[in-house]
Amino acid sequence: MSTGTVAEPGIVVDIGNLPILLRSDDAQLREMLHGRYRGFVASGRLPDFQLQIELHEGQQELDAEADVEVRRSGDGWALRRGDFAATWTNQSGCGRVLQSRNPYAIDSVLRIVHSLLLASRGGFLLHAASAIRKGRAFLFAGVSGAGKTTISGLAPPDVILLTDEVSYIRRGPEGYRACGTPFAGELATSGENLSAPIAAVYLLEKGEQNRIEPVEASEGLQAVLRNILFFAEDQELVNSVFQSACDFVSALPLHRLTFMPEERVWELIT
Amino acid sequence: MSERYIARSSSIAARMMGVETMVMSALDSTFFSLNEVASVIWEAADGTTPLSRIVSERVCRDFDVDADSAARDALEFVEELAKHGILLVSEQPIITPAAGAEPTA
């Protein structure tokens, strides 16, 4: 008779100091997760949350480009896209994911789960590159094509890149911090798993010269809201994220950074 | 012209920042920043105070603006926000929980 002792395989992925255990019986998937989240795998840390991943091996081609749907379900959320279906329970901090073998599915689930976790903590995920220089973090926000990857690629050696695509904003007693993420853009490079207090936020715009201009609070707020990764059409959550964005804009200096694709633009970032 | 009553929708998120009010629809994420005058109208949109009274007693009192222009601008403003479901507009008083009404039996 079995004693019932079971060691369930999984890896702990610690993004933004919110470690999530990703469990799967599939060794190939676990290997893929190890590779994809290398640098964010926490070996000596107990997870606060967990996701059980099951693979969908159906014949039907799954559509990773389909719209994400996130809706409340009991004490939690139901997440769905063409290539995954997931549930998340707030109270237990546990979820289940049924997904295809492609890595983009769990990447998207993690982004959504982190955005939900951050919403109740005054933080959010932002379409922005971020980097640390001299112990302070700088954010470069913009929609696709605004120059996030470009400015990341121009960073001098003393700059530590946190991400070229999705910035992780946490709010703590001492203010806002930017944390590194493995969510890469065109640079296809994971950010460093570090964090630093945010010194300034730049709204990116490509132009004929390098210059920094202040932006009005309303313009800054609108830009931040436009770039927050936000999935659920839920009144309570919308209000929570909106208030977080207002607090963020009120607390930090926001500027418009018009720049040319040349290294000298980093002379303005100090 | 008939009287208008205005009330803030419950499907919005709003916040004062400086003298402006930031408003976002929870339905379609439409965003508006309301200037100082618009913010006064927004704050007074309790569903029971006629728009004409808000304009005469609040806008014309607090800002250097003539009554006709203020009334015209206010109507344009409320109709714009109403199009996005951010303000409710009616020719009758609007009784909503947000306006502080007691539930009816």
Which structural traits does this protein have?
heterodimer, A: 270 residues, alpha+beta, Phosphoenolpyruvate Carboxykinase, domain 3, seven-stranded mixed beta sheet, five-stranded mixed beta barrel, 15 strands, B: 105 residues, Arc Repressor Mutant, subunit A, three-stranded antiparallel beta sheet, 3 helices
How does this structure look, described?
The complex is a heterodimer of chains A (270) and B (105). With 270 residues, chain A is α+β, with helices and mostly antiparallel strands. Chain A has 2 domains: 10-119, no CATH class; 124-268, Phosphoenolpyruvate Carboxykinase, domain 3 (Alpha-Beta Complex), CATH 3.90.228.20. Helices cover 23% and strands 35% of the residues of chain A. Chain A is built from 5 helices and 15 strands. Chain A has helices at residues 27-36, 103-119, 148-153, 217-227, 235-251, and strands spanning 10-15, 18-23, 49-55, 69-72, 76-81, 84-89, 94-99, 124-133, 136-141, 160-163, 166-172, 175-179, 195-206, 211-214, 254-259. Chain A has a 7-stranded mixed β-sheet, covered by helices on one side. In chain A, strands 8-9-13-12-11 form a 5-stranded mixed β-barrel. In chain A, helix 4 (217-227) packs across helix 5 (235-251). The radius of gyration of chain A is 19 Å and the shape is globular. Chain A starts with 9 loop residues before the first strand and ends in an 11-residue tail after the last strand. With 105 residues, chain B is of the alpha+beta class. Chain B has helices at 36-44, 51-62, 67-83; strands spanning 5-8, 12-17, 20-25, 31-34, 46-50, 87-90. In chain B, helix 1 packs antiparallel against helix 2.
